[in-house]
Specification:
Structural class: alpha/beta
Largest sheet: 5 strands, mixed
Number of strands: 5
Strand content: 25-35%
Order of helices and strands: EHEHEHEEH
Radius of gyration: 12 Å
Oligomer: single chain
Strand order of the largest sheet: 1-3-2-4-5
Distance between the termini: 19 Å
């Protein structure tokens, strides 16, 4: 299961050992709801290899502003606490897995 990112715990999540995939979403976003099962599958399949985190833009507005999230869903990929990749919109699982494979 994916962790929930908040304004207060986000930097702690990024400081961990594992690469981090952050799913920026909102409850009112249809494409976000469509992507959510895929992100959950990846969280299960990559447990122990990648930290998968969900960040509700309505609840964690500071993080969304910091990373200039203008459209959702947006996936951010971090390694060593640094942003290394980004996708915007509804992407398929193969695309996400290909991007993650470069981080592991």
């Amino acid at each position: 299961m994916a962790k929930i990112a908040t304004n207060s715990n986000f930097q702690e999540i990024l400081s961990g050992e594992l690469p981090v995939l952050v799913d920026f979403w909102a409850t009112w976003c249809g494409p976000c709801r469509a992507l959510s099962p895929t992100v959950d599958e990846i969280a299960e399949e990559y447990a122990g290899k990648v930290e998968v985190v969900k960040c509700n833009v309505d609840d964690a507005d500071q993080i969304a502003m910091q990373y200039r999230i203008m459209s959702i869903p947006t996936l951010l990929y971090f390694k060593g606490g640094q942003l290394v990749d980004r996708t915007v919109g509804l992407v398929d699982k193969d695309d996400i897995v290909a991007r993650l494979s470069k981080l592991i």
